[in-house]
Specification:
The protein is elongated, with a radius of gyration of 20 Å. The protein has a two-stranded antiparallel ribbon with strand order 1-2. It has about 130 residues and is mainly alpha-helical. Helices cover about 50% and strands about 10% of the residues.
């Protein structure tokens, strides 16, 4: 894409008013960074992705409320983490993280382990133990 072809469709909803950087080829054939207001196709795809994330988060929340998953599953989903990533962030083996997604096992965790999860998820222990009611 050339510098003058970089989309400027004023789709700043997902970037909160901040322009984003795009790479484009200048008149000399070199790659340069060009600010962009966005692109309608990009906005459409982002809206689909955001909606899908919200649906998945709600399904996980409902599973927690039904006692099928622990609150840890909800907070992982909210932060878009998988057991491997959360495990590495918290210093806990991924297999243990997967076990802690079960409500009965999660309920027995010591505060020291909950603190590691809370810190990795950037929340308080009290928040980690619950999910929103709505």
């Amino acid at each position: 894409m050339k510098v003058n072809e970089v989309p400027q469709d004023n789709t700043l909803e997902y970037y909160e008013g901040i322009k984003r950087a795009c790479y484009a080829v200048n008149d000399e054939g070199k790659y340069v960074i060009v600010p962009s207001n966005g692109w309608e196709a990009e906005e459409f795809i982002n809206s689909i992705a955001v909606n899908e994330l919200a649906v998945n988060l709600e399904k996980t929340r409902q599973a927690v409320l039904a006692g099928e998953k622990s609150p840890l599953a909800y907070h992982m989903e909210r932060r878009q983490m998988i057991p491997d990533i959360l495990g590495k962030t918290a210093g806990i083996a991924a297999l243990r993280v997967k076990r802690h997604l079960r409500p009965k096992i999660f309920a027995k965790l010591k505060n020291s382990l909950l603190e590691r999860y809370a810190q990795a998820l950037a929340i308080k222990i009290e928040e980690l133990k619950t999910v929103p009611n709505n």
